[in-house]
Amino acid sequence: MAETTTQGGAPSADTGDANPKIRLIPGGFRRGGKKSGGRRQSWLRRTFGMDRMFGLTLLAGLLVVYAADPYIIEVVRVKIFDVYQKAKPRQVTQRPVTIIDLDERSLAEIGQWPWPRTIVAQMIQNLMQMGAVLVAFDIVFAEPDRMNPADVADAIHGLDDETRAKLKSLRSNDAVLADVVKNSRVVLGQASFWEDRELKAGPPVKKSVAVKMTPGAPPPLALVPSFPDLIRNVPEVEKVATGHGIFSLVTEPDGIVRRVPSLFAYDGNLYPSLSVEMLRVATGRPTILVGTNEAGVSHLAIARGLVLPTDNIGRVWPYFSKSDKEKYVSARDVLAGTVDPEKIRQKLTIVGTSAVGLLDIRSTPVDRVIPGVEVHAQLIETAITGEYLLRENFIVAAELSLLLFGGLLMIWLVPKVGAKWTMILFFIVAGGAAGTSWYLFSEQRIMFDAVYAVFGILILYTLLTYTGYAKEEVQRRQVRSAFGHYLSPAMVEKLAEDPDQLKLGGETRNMSMLFCDVRGFTTISEMFDAEGLTQLINKLLTPLTKVILDRQGTVDKYMGDCIMAFWNAPLDDEAHARNACLAALVMNEEMGPLNDRLAAEAEEEGRPHIPLKIGISVNSGDVVVGNMGSDQRFDYSILGDNVNLASRLEGQCKTYAVDIVVGENTQAKIPDMATLQLDQIKVKGKTEAVTVYTVLGDEAVKNGNAFPVLEEAHNKMLDAYRSQDWAAAKQHLASCRELLDGFKLDEFYDIYAERIAEYEANPPGADWDGVYVATSK
292 has which bridge partners? Predict the structure, then answer.
C-alpha cells in the first residue's frame, strides 16, 4: 500500500480497496455518498427562520461582549452602583477609627508640614497614654528631619564653635522619634512610586503576608497592583515600627475611589495596604493569610472572624458612608491634651490630613470631596462591621442568565406573537430585573447589574421587530473533511502489512500510559504572542517527543502543552513500564538544557524568562487500543479506566511537589528502579483508593548508598503516619530530611509536616484509613 502525506504533514495511508466507502482526499478520510449540507441548512431555516438565526447570532455577540467586559460597560456598571450607594449610603453604627487630622488649624498654630519629629513623637506618646490601640500614619517620613540639631548647626552662620559643638552633640530628632516608635504600637505608611528611580530604597523591613495557594490558581503576585519603586521612611524609624502598610489608593479612570487594594506587589513580594496592616497589628496576628481560587485572590484572613472578601486582584469594595466629621480630631488638640479621651481610648488612630494644601483629597461614590485618610478609616469600619459590597462569581452567572433567557424569549416570541405583546413582556422583565437589582443592593449589599442585560434584550427586541424576516446569506453547504490521521512510523509499517486494520475496532492490552504537562503554562503563555507561543511549544515538545520515541513509545496526541503517550502498542514491549519510567526520568533531565537555551534566547531578546517545569504521570494496566472514532474520522488511540487514572495522576505532581507520579500497577512492574511511596489517595472521579509512588532513578540509584537508607526512613515515617503515631512520624520525617542527599523531596516532606501538625491539633479519629482524597484533577 502506498504511503502519502496529509496537509498537516503526518504520515497517512491510501486504503486501496480495503474499505471502498472511505477514500483519501486532501486533508483526510471522507465517507463517499451524496452531500447533505443543503438539506441541513433548509431544515434550520424551516425550524428557526432567518430572523431567529440572526437573533441568536446577535445574542451570542452580546454574551461575548459581556464576557470581554470592555471599559465602557464597566463604567456604566460602576456608575449604577454609585447611584445606589448615593441613594442609600452605609449608616455609621461604630467608630473604631479616629483620624488625627493635620487640619488647617493645626498647621496655622504649630507650623507648616513637615513638623519636627520631636513634635510627632510627642503626639504618639499622648495618643498611647490616652489608650489608643495603635497609631498609624497616612504619611511617609521619607527624609531626615530638617530640624535635626546637627543640621541646624551647619545651617546657621555666625555660631561660635562651642555652641555649634553643643548642637552637634545633641541627639537627632529622628532618633527621638525612633525611641518613641519602638516603645509604642505604630504602623508606618509607605507610598508606591510609579517611576523606576535610580536609587531604590530596597524592600520593606518586615513582611507580614502569607499565601495559601489553591491548585490551579494564578499566583497573586501576577495579579495585584504593582509598582517599580517604594518610598519608605528613614531607616532609623522604619526598622523599629510594629507594622508597615502601603497607603497608596488606586483611583478609577474617572477619579473615583471605589475599590481599595488590600495587597501590593513589589520586588517579588506581597505587602499589605495600610488599613489591612492596621487590622493585623490591632488583632496581634503575626501574618495575613491570602486565600486564592481559580480566578485569583479570593480573600484575606486577618484573624479569626475577620476575613476580607476581595476580587480576583485583591481589591476590597467598601460600602461607603457619608463623610463623618465625628471621627476626626485635630492634631493640635492631641498635642495640647484637650481632646476628648473617649475619642482616643480603645481606638485605632490614623494620622492624616484634610488640609487642601497637602493634596490628599479624594472622591468616593458618596462624597465628591473627602480626605484620602478617611478611605482607609472607612475600609476598617466595613471590615469590622462586615458591611462589604459583594460581587461574587454567581452574580456574573445570574447576569448572564438574565441576558440569555430574556434574549431567547425575545428571539422566540417576537416573530411568533408580534411586537405589541413582547413589548409588554419586555417591560415586565426590565422592571423585575431593576427591582431585583435594587433589592439585592439595599438589603443584601449584593451588586447585581441589570442594566447590560436589559439593554441587550431591548436591542434584540428592537432589531427583531424592525428587521422581521430579512433574508440572510446562504450558508455554506460543504462540510470540511477531517484532517489526515497522525500515525507513528511503526503504525504505518504495520498498516502496510495489513490494510484491513484501517477500520473501527480495537483490542485489550496491558500497557503503560504517560501524561506530561507544563506547570504554570498559562502564566508563561501570557508573555508571548501566538507565533512566539507556537515556537515555544515546538521547542518544548521536540526533545520530549524524541525521548519517548527513543524508548519505544508512541505519542498518542498533543493537547497544547500536554503530551499523551503509551507503550506496548502497536508493537509489543514486555518492558513497557520500565521504558515509560525511564522516559519520564530523561524527559525531566532534558528540561535543564532546554531552560538554559530558552533563558539565553530571552536575554538576547530582552524579555523575562520563566523556567519551564513539567509534571509526568505513568500508569499501567489493561486498556483498549485501536482505531477509535467514526466512519468519517478515527485515530489510533487508547481508552479505559487506567487511561483516566493516568491522566488524574499527572495532576498530583503538583499536589505532592514531585516531578513524577506513578500508579501502583506500574511500581509493581519496576522492582529494579528506585521508587518511593507518596500516599494512598482517592483521585477525582474514583471511589477506590490507589497507592501512588514517585520514581527517583534507575537500578544504579536504587543500589547506591543514599537511596536504601532514605527508603527505610521514608517507609517508617509513612507507617507511623498511618498508625497516627505523630511523634514518631515527625522523628522519622526529620531523619528523611537529613538523608535527602540531592533527592528533590523537600517540598514533599513539607506537605507531610503540615498534615502531621494538622492531625496533631485535630486527630482524624480511630476509623481513619490514612487515605487522602484529592480535590483536583
Answer: 297
Tell me the three cell numbers of residue 42: 433548509
As beta bridge partners, residue 231 has: 191
User: What percentage of the chain reaches a pLDDT higher than 70?
Assistant: 84
Q: How confident is the model at residue 422 (pLDDT cuts 50, 70, 90)?
A: confident
Average pLDDT, the chain: 82
C-alpha grid cell for residue 752? 507531610
Enter the C-alpha cell of residue 482.
Answer: 477531517
User: 334: which residues sit within 8 A by CB, 6+ positions away?
Assistant: 100, 123, 126, 127, 344
Residue with cell 483519501: 24
Beta strand extents in 492-587 (DSSP E only): 505-518, 554-559, 562-567
Express each pLDDT in 620-629 by its tens digit.
999 998 877 7
Kind plus residue range of the DSSP H or E element containing 221: none
Per-residue pLDDT at 70: 82
pTM for the complete prediction? 0.52
DSSP 367: -
What pLDDT shows up at residue 503?
47
What does the alpha-carbon distance between residue 515 and residue 650 come to, in Å, rounded to a whole number?
6
Please choose, from the candidates 240, 303, 226, 328, the residue with its C-alpha nearest in 3D space to the C-alpha of residue 269: 226
Q: In order of start, what are the domains of the chain with their CATH numbers? A: 3-33 (no CATH), 48-85+391-467 (no CATH), 91-385 (no CATH), 504-643 (3.30.70.1230)
Q: Where are the beta strands (DSSP E) in 228-360?
A: 229-231, 243-246, 260-261, 263-266, 269-272, 288-293, 296-303, 306-309, 315-316, 328-330, 348-352
Q: Which three cell numbers stand for residue 678?
A: 507518596
Q: Which tens digits make up the pLDDT trace of 674-704?
A: 999 999 998 776 778 999 999 999 999 999 9
In terms of Cβ atoms closer than 10 Å to its own Cβ (0-12, 13-18, 19+), residue 267 is: middle
d(C-alpha 454, C-alpha 450), whole Å: 6
Q: Which tens digits make up the pLDDT trace of 464-473? A: 776 654 443 3
User: Quick one: how far is CA 663 from the chain centroid?
Assistant: 29
